TrEMBL record:
Classification via Pfam families: CBM_2
UniProt GO molecular function: hydrolase activity, hydrolyzing O-glycosyl compounds; polysaccharide binding
Every CBM2 domain range: 788-898
Disordered as annotated region, ranges: 770-791
Record-given protein name: Cellulose binding domain-containing protein
Keywords tagged on the record: Carbohydrate metabolism, Cellulose degradation, Glycosidase, Hydrolase, Polysaccharide degradation, Signal
Amino acid sequence: MRRTRVLTAVLALAAGLLTGGPPALAAAPPDRPAAASDAPARSAFAADTYTWKNARIDGGGFVPGIVFNRSEKNLAYARTDIGGAYRWQEATKSWTPLLDSVGWDDWGHTGVVSLASDPVDPDRVYAAAGTYTNDWDPGNGAVLRSTDRGASWRKADLPFKLGGNMPGRGMGERLAVDPHRNSVLYLGAPSGKGLWRSTDSGASWSQVTAFPNPGTYVQDPDDASGYASDNQGIVWVTFDESTGTPGSATRTIYVGVADKENAVYRSTDAGATWQRVAGQPTGYLAHKGVLDTENGHLYLAYSDKGGPYDGGKGRLWRYTTATGTWTDISPVAEADTYYGFSGLTVDRQNPGTLMTTAYSSWWPDTQIFRSTDSGATWTRAWDYSSYPDRVNRYTMDVSSVPWLTWGADPSPPEQSPKLGWMTESLEIDPFDPDRMMYGTGATVYGTENLTNWDRDTAFTITPMVRGLEETAVNDLISPPSGAPLLSGLLDIGGFRHTDLTKVPPMMFTQPNFTATTSLDFAESRPDTVVRTGDLDSGPHIAFSTDNGAHWFAGTDPSGVSGGGTVAAGADGSRFVWSPRGAGVHHTTGFGTSWSASSGIPEGAVVESDRVDPKTFYGFKSGRFYVSTDGGATFAASPATGLPSGDSVRFKALPGTKGDIWLAGGESGGTYGLWHSTDGGRSFAKLSGVDEADTVGFGKAAPGASYQTVFTSAEIDGVRGIFRSTDRGQSWTRINDDAHQWGWTGAAITGDPRVYGRVYVATNGRGIVYGDTSETGGGDDGGGGTGPDPGPAGACEVTYEITNQWPDGFQARVQVTNTGANAWNGWALTWSFADGQRVSQLWNGGHTQSGPTVTVRNTDWNGTVAAGSSVGFGFTASRSGTNARPAAFALDGRACTVT
């Protein structure tokens, strides 16, 4: 149903969990000077107070950096490549987001390339922000500084870009605070911009012109996009705190440079002059440099590539600072590595203990190494007992985030769940040798009994990621019955949320798309759901007949290379699909065969009318298209004045044929929100809406006859999330300056069952949902609407056998509330005539006594509004005939059977 404006070039470059960025076209701020910009943000109006939360997924993206404060216990931070920064909350064992205040124009500042916690004043924290160094991010980078642990920030703009989502982002930290004179900070820049220094606690920055080497390494010099061809620059800064005294600048500083021949530099005069460290190894990049000042050792983790995906060879070296001696302390012989080293940490309570990771080892798993004698000898997190069998020093418990198994059942030596991949961040708590955290491409793992490792006793690894939500969201749907929310995500496909406050058990599988690009459901049969997505090999479309609980793959038309957009007919009898790589197609049934649609160009965005099952709509390059024959043929609408580009999203209103809202455009061109009430033949542009990027609908306000309209837009000069309860005649901004989440232009939808509830797609902060203070918000998180009476009045049942075999069958049942009142709890009863017995049932609980079956609602689908439906499915055994039940009763009342 939606097309995201994610950078396809970024996705093409990714070999793993790479989340893309929004386009520059609608979010290009003016160039900013290098001087500090301390003016507070404009305080925009907010006429309604909303409570904002995340629909829990827990993780979902790359965590390249974890930083513990060295002077205060339990103070830790995590940085993400596109989802901002977080602070650890020890009391709840969870993370608090710190950069939700980043606004639309500065969306790039949700990418954090480095983070520093002040060791002298723990209230101070700094973040180097910026997502791309090429023109995908139109704005320059900035250093954000906070004196209240990230609760609020001031910003110093930089005269160059930073790359929180660029190659090499797992190296670092590039930002560091002088531990003796904490007003002094250093920042390593990419793109040949060199080393920078601040002497006023990050308020202003100047280049260290004496630093001799801005870096030379690029991942792919031939990449014309500038993504893989950028110089990865200066990648870490480490102070030797043994060479300074409080109040005076630290004398000795080490700097890591992305240069395989000249990777490590040192200053011994507080940054006035710099020299290449003599005798250093060559042929590798130094991903990390960690100093143990007690023993006088600088440890360096090397890889032949910049990461975070690539890396085929690696080494680990120890530099003795007093003598200048270099020692290869690699855990394995160079010939035996097929990965690079990156994650690197020292136990500050026991400095001879250190750990490192084989960050780029995907198969069969990542590896973690540990030494208790300064690298002289090592043990591994796992070893082979007799190939392919493994013996692990650890146990893994992912019950709190069960989807981390990916539903996989691999053959040895692979295991599920894996220890991880892209393990570039690894930190032992400086105050607690038993606690260790490490980031992967999907989560933060950790343990609180790490020293069991040294006693040959298993230590336990669990997700330590609650509160850190890092998915990039492409599409959202909220059906009128069943689960309140289904999502389409980059990297991990998407989820069915039956309870917004709980982590779903598994992402969508069968197939498991690397990115779900579009979702839709049949408006009058919401158990019928379709999704499309990207997959390296395999089908790009899947269907569900039980509200997204289970899926089966469809068949691709010839030439399909990506998911594109898809639309379900209002009654679920037909679908229209506009995939990438092929033109628009249509089908009846569940996509076993497709026919090309005529009259509509390839790449059009498609949607369905929510009332007429044969009416579909499309948009491409300023033209609106309409089909009234199920998608077989389209005709261009005479409507004019629409945006000329393809950054457009539109939706048809449920319950009213031909009522369409269209949002989109681009800065400097036609941009805004349009409304059609004649099936797209004409559109009226809404005045006062300067820009709009998404549109969605939710339950009507009390006393209102028209559904609530939501949009991510700029209205009367103010950017935000807006709500209208009067068909767009007036708008209320429902977010505030503290809740902006960068770019929110992919998808938005209200909840048809809870007035005021809205679901917002973000590009790295997961699925955000808001509840209005006007109605108390419906805090159950599951879509309930209050204590309505139980079933009363009319009901209608549709019973459909969807598959059968000699001794069994599968069926779906849909129950529609045709009465005037909502149901709060229901029980449906019928009798089988031929001895059939239910063996498995989903979306409900069941009992069977003889031929009589009773199905009751679950805890999330008991409320069924008037005119809405609820459905469930089951498998059952049979022998011989398989007659359909003749009668159904809902709580003792007979239902019409269709």
